[in-house]
Amino acid sequence: MRKLRYGMVGGGRDAFIGVVHRKAMALDGGYELVAGALSSNPEKAKLSGEDLGLSPNRNYGSWQQMLESELALPIDQRIDVVSIVTPNHVHFPVAKAFAEAGFHVVCDKPLVHTSSEAEELIRIVEKTGAVFAVTYNYTGYPMVKHARHMVRSGQLGDIRKIIVEYNQGWLATKLEESGQKQADWRTDPARSGAAGCIGDIGSHAENLVATVTGLELDSICADLTTFVEGRQLDDDGNLLMRFVGGAKGVMIASQIQIGGENDIRLRVFGTKGGIEWHQENPNYIVHNSLDAPRQILTRGSDYLCAAAKKATRIPAGHPEAFLEAFANVYIGAAEAIHAKLEQRVLTELEGDYPTVIDGARGIKFIETTVKSAASSQKWTAF
Amino acid sequence: MRKLRYGMVGGGRDAFIGVVHRKAMALDGGYELVAGALSSNPEKAKLSGEDLGLSPNRNYGSWQQMLESELALPIDQRIDVVSIVTPNHVHFPVAKAFAEAGFHVVCDKPLVHTSSEAEELIRIVEKTGAVFAVTYNYTGYPMVKHARHMVRSGQLGDIRKIIVEYNQGWLATKLEESGQKQADWRTDPARSGAAGCIGDIGSHAENLVATVTGLELDSICADLTTFVEGRQLDDDGNLLMRFVGGAKGVMIASQIQIGGENDIRLRVFGTKGGIEWHQENPNYIVHNSLDAPRQILTRGSDYLCAAAKKATRIPAGHPEAFLEAFANVYIGAAEAIHAKLEQRVLTELEGDYPTVIDGARGIKFIETTVKSAASSQKWTAF
Amino acid sequence: MRKLRYGMVGGGRDAFIGVVHRKAMALDGGYELVAGALSSNPEKAKLSGEDLGLSPNRNYGSWQQMLESELALPIDQRIDVVSIVTPNHVHFPVAKAFAEAGFHVVCDKPLVHTSSEAEELIRIVEKTGAVFAVTYNYTGYPMVKHARHMVRSGQLGDIRKIIVEYNQGWLATKLEESGQKQADWRTDPARSGAAGCIGDIGSHAENLVATVTGLELDSICADLTTFVEGRQLDDDGNLLMRFVGGAKGVMIASQIQIGGENDIRLRVFGTKGGIEWHQENPNYIVHNSLDAPRQILTRGSDYLCAAAKKATRIPAGHPEAFLEAFANVYIGAAEAIHAKLEQRVLTELEGDYPTVIDGARGIKFIETTVKSAASSQKWTAF
Amino acid sequence: MRKLRYGMVGGGRDAFIGVVHRKAMALDGGYELVAGALSSNPEKAKLSGEDLGLSPNRNYGSWQQMLESELALPIDQRIDVVSIVTPNHVHFPVAKAFAEAGFHVVCDKPLVHTSSEAEELIRIVEKTGAVFAVTYNYTGYPMVKHARHMVRSGQLGDIRKIIVEYNQGWLATKLEESGQKQADWRTDPARSGAAGCIGDIGSHAENLVATVTGLELDSICADLTTFVEGRQLDDDGNLLMRFVGGAKGVMIASQIQIGGENDIRLRVFGTKGGIEWHQENPNYIVHNSLDAPRQILTRGSDYLCAAAKKATRIPAGHPEAFLEAFANVYIGAAEAIHAKLEQRVLTELEGDYPTVIDGARGIKFIETTVKSAASSQKWTAF
């Protein structure tokens, strides 16, 4: 299977997430970087491309240039897929333009700023048939895939309750004043969107819940807070959730809980059992059942589901972590792209990645949460 | 210091919590059992008293008899204190009668069924000067006392956020139908009160938060659920909380989260740091600070506060647990009773126990939560 | 069942372990303190006895006096049992004298200084029929009893390997120079015996292994070290062990591993599975099997063995700890004493406590270890 | 910096470690695979090379062919480095031949079968100046680098004691009979070498200790066991160790401890503190000091040493794991190779990887351990 040719938008010098995407793509040898518009600043874009060894004629000063020039290339040289790793406000124009031009797209989350933008992307993708992945990377973990399997196959019985947390503390002080780039744009509504903490990490938590349980949100009751004085967006959010069918939920997301590093965790309880998973030690699931001893399931074990096994590279006890999970999203997208190229349908275990539909639902989640936070009514419909 | 003479109401054969109280009182040698009305069933009461070696003339068939007979004894033989360990609905009449008669009282939680009952008890105690302890036992843990010290002395800065959980799974099925006595009365509104899960364990969580932080609740937004069909009271509750001064909170309490044994935990975050404590491994506090490595504080260490040290019997690494914490409540009450007997004021570290005031606030918490759960408004004032 | 009358030798003001014994005896109401010779210093003995409310005529200045006076009392007033909680060198004369006089004995560990002393105690006990318990308290934990059950009932298959650790750091500096009483006598060969670390805590580790596995030591290969300059006894010891039948073992015991509080742990591996238990969080066993997920067994659960359940006072999740385990040794001894008093045999679950035989084997372990440490041969026969 | 061209020997279809090496090299973009002799079976070698997209003319049927053909290429097309990932017995001839021909070498561990082979490799490397890395991958973890820094910079004081464990259970049954390839050759002395467990994983443990502490072994006392009947090599080993300067050590290594996955852990204790690190959750160090609370150090934190920071790709809380650590060894080797190509010396933080010297010491460790196991003397000099 040939390597997919990708172009990257964003991810230049000083960026955080671009390098993660590149390493994730490099890990399994499925992609090669052939083009880039690595910064909104043309000069920085070029320097960044040089760092990465881009050939000068495909080291672009802007994504518009990249789009135009790539389209001018013969189809067997042209990029297959664009990877969009810019601050949030740039996602929409880039994704729209490349998708409309028929390229496959991998875009960071949250997808866009508004549901109407998200729906527009869905319409485009439906028309062009492009693969469109959104890097909700936490669902790439093998043990998350197994959690999904446990829930979906009824091992926990009917789902009653979901507790999801995303505990961080890095914005407990006004870090954005220090010039730290990540803090700067993530706390700026113009670049980050309508929500801060809930947009940046609450959206990951929403996706984790939806992926594992398949439950649909019915309504949300949110309390969002900006604890750090002078900050414009929320840096903490607590939600009660109701799901269609009667399950209840709690989401705790925060950027001011000192000591929280990147502590996304999930608990799901049903009529027959409960499970727990922690991202910071991600190779395990704690499984509790009625009247049986607690179990610790470990990545790499024979008793795991096929999707978890497929997402595993090395044996139990040799921990896999963040980058490997991220890479699993890209593997799923690559499978889907190859299937398109080969004009065939995906096999059962192929193409396991979050799509533009997940991305759109995430935007609706952010919007509903912000709306609920402003409401004196307890429940805001999803 | 002489042993305090106590009489017990409730706690006969098949009871759960009575034996805990008796062991807690026995542990440190401060109390001796001299009288009892150990069941509402006179025959069972007598048999239970025989089991415990009560002398026949003080092995009473009812608490009314016990009250009358003890009052008839000379003051230096009479019980000093009554320990009330009955199902909830019996707390009020017994506590009222003994307190009015001038006895000191230790009563299990939740204190009574209504705030007006609680206020009546406060008025009586104010008049008689009796010691009135409520056995919110989790605040007896040394590391909870140190958590209180850390918050109150400003080590965490201004408090921003509190997360309290009480995770249980024992009522995930309809256990009350099996004849299990604990499940039977705890799910019965007539005996348990207006709330199930929130009354039984949510009230402990509320007390833990209030004790450690000293913050006053401003308003509550509650979602209570009865997951097990046919059950009359809530078996799950999730709350958003707002505190006077701006701190936010989340409470998760459940009796249907399979795998939860008696998992009460607390996290408190301020502008300078955060702490975490778990009851199931209670000898530790996790302490996070801005820009310093995470610390694990251990019971028995030199660096702990005086109250934590006083509440500690044995060195670090020799774990102390539930019964010892329970006994610490009784030690605090005993100190207060002795001070009354000696007509002196308590020294600084003496008398560290939850009082009728804490008990009353707990009832108000239950009432407000139930009211909020029935409301379509987001916030119900506390 | 009447309370047993006990007299205590040692355990006066400033002692550590005496108060543990008294609380352990108080917890379950099976014993009452009626006599004491609480210090080798007669004046201190008397003051200590006053603290504890001993009646003046049974508050003795020496154990010899106590023995003589108690023997002079009518048998129904006389102490039933003596509890010996002195520094090690006093164990033998006191135990011998009381045992010969027909009293039941509970003695702290290590039992005595030499195997010949230990054998003499065995002979006496065989003659008088007295109950003689040695407070190897860690075997009192319910989950240790269940570990024993798992091994003895074949759940782990044939035992291949045992790893036992007792990690402490409190003697990492020359604490004995500070006047700290515990450090003072424990590092003094005249009072502590031929070994330091191995005598004080290695002996606990030996007993834990023997209790859980029932395996007999075949030979030992020891490396003992005195890391703190000027100290006379070992403060660290590492052992390879061979057991009759082919199992292998490792013991790590130390008083200089900074950060070790009272970290005694056990791992046992057989042909079918392995288990792990940690004293500092003692309510759990980790159980691994061939081809099945890891299990966490929790104290208080229905699936545990009868002996573990009998040793449990309160439900799962309400942690029990050091004092409760200690008290379980005293419960076992009390059952044996009552059976003697009633001239009946013990029922199957009664009398579960370490005896003088365990104590003697512990001394042989210390002697063999010290001998091995001095030898250039790899293996020293046990 | 251009990508290094590498050729791989071994690592074809069904191999375990070859794919790990390839992913580790791919992750950071420093290497590209251009040639291979991927199996000792020429046909399988070719098929494996096709899987990996090798060009037919550099997809070799044997390493001898590869050596000859690569040497015939112009220097700017020729491979820079050979990566040897065969079973152990093939390491020596391949490494020798390529090193003698002036290629840089990365070789899996244990390096070779005998110390004389190891010394021969050292002599060759000294002559040619080639870079020769041995993939003791566990020392690539950032927190292992920080542990090394803590010890070497004196934060723990003088080192007294080291406990290293490598707990596995995968060979608890006679897996080699099932045809499992890894079990097959690892239990065969002809292919694995003189030791089984000690060679395969004990050698990793030795390297971890040497890397972190810099201490030299003085003597070893080993007890090796073959628990599984009919197996030819040890599957369990326990060692007492003495280090030059007086520190003591214990090594526990096993392939029959059921439940052990890949549980390599290290504890180091000095006069001022102690540390603990576990490979299965590798982003943390537990640090204990005299009289200060226990600390948990986390990867990605500002307070870590420069080498740990350099070895870190993503922020704290986004766990990095096995592959990333493996890749760090390859980064260090690449830096050294580039420095050679550029004829410059390494900067202070460059070139941090285990060398042929480490590999040779590992072989001496295996030989000494096997010798000690056969000896009735306690100590065998290293």
Radius of gyration of chain A: 21 Å
CATH topology of the largest domain in chain A: Dihydrodipicolinate Reductase, domain 2
- Strand tally of chain A, please? 14
Give the integer mean of the pLDDT values of chain A. Answer: 97
Can you offer a commentary on this structure?
Four copies of one chain form a homotetramer. Chain A is α/β, with parallel strands linked by helices and 382 residues long. Chain A is 36% helix and 23% strand. Chain A is built from twelve helices and 14 strands. The first copy, chain A, has helices at 17-27, 42-51, 63-72, 88-100, 115-128, 142-152, 181-186, 189-192, 197-213, 306-310, 322-341, 356-373, and strands at 4-9, 31-37, 81-84, 104-107, 132-134, 159-167, 217-225, 236-243, 248-254, 263-270, 273-278, 284-289, 292-298, 380-381. In chain A, strands 13-12-11-10-6-9-8-7-14 form a nine-stranded mixed beta sheet. A five-stranded parallel beta sheet of chain A has the order 2-1-3-4-5, with helices on both faces. In chain A, helix 4 (88-100) links the parallel strand 3 and strand 4 (104-107). The radius of gyration of chain A is 21 Å and the shape is globular. The N and C termini of chain A lie far apart (42 Å). Chain A binds chain B through residues 160-161, 163, 169, 172-173, 221, 223, 225, 227, 236, 238, 240, 242, 248-250, 252, 254, 256-260, 267, 269-274, 276, 286, 288-290, 294, 375-379, and chain B through 160-161, 163, 169, 172-173, 221, 223, 225, 227, 236, 238, 240, 242, 248, 250, 252, 254, 256-260, 267, 269-274, 276, 286, 288-290, 294, 375-379. Strand 13 of chain B pairs antiparallel with strand 13 (292-298) of chain D, so a sheet runs across the interface.
